[in-house]
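in:
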């Protein structure tokens, strides 16, 4: 009776030992799974931190670019104002020249040529008239080019202002 009780106790102890070993194996398996998940989460966290750093750097770069674009826009607006002042002065000068030409007419130039006393004076006066005419054409071309430049600068300034309004610049 005593031996059968001991055998039963041994069997029961072995069953408990086996159950404990199985429980230990499950706990160790769970620990391994949790360690694996911990490693995955740490890796994911490092990746997120790297992305955050990249995004922070990108935002800083965009801020710098926005400041540069804002400065360029200010410079462009200053140049545009200067060009408008220059264009207005050229326009006023051309207006004066046209009024003078209208009041004095081309007859005075013809009279100037015909009143020459010799061929050398005639040729000199003809050359002077040609130079004045060329100067007038050059000034008109310069005025037209300046007007085109002003229009291009205004469009560029509008694009910069539009981008600023959209929030693309600071």
């Amino acid at each position: 009776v005593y031996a059968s009780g001991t055998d039963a106790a041994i069997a029961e102890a072995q069953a408990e030992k086996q159950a404990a070993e199985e429980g230990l194996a499950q706990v160790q398996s769970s620990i391994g799974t949790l360690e694996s998940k911990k490693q995955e989460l740490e890796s994911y966290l490092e990746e997120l931190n790297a992305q955050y750093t990249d995004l922070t750097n990108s935002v800083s770069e965009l801020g710098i670019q926005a400041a540069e674009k804002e400065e360029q826009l200010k410079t462009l607006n200053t140049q545009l104002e200067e060009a408008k002042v220059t264009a207005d002065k050229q326009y006023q000068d051309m207006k004066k020249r046209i009024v003078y030409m209208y009041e004095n007419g081309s007859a005075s130039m013809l009279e100037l040529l015909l009143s020459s006393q010799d061929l050398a004076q005639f040729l000199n006066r003809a050359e002077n008239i040609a130079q004045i005419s060329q100067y007038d054409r050059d000034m008109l071309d310069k005025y037209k080019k300046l007007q085109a430049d002003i229009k291009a600068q205004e469009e560029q300034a509008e694009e910069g202002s539009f981008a600023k309004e959209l929030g693309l610049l600071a």
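note: Residues 72 and 78 are 10 Å apart (CA to CA).
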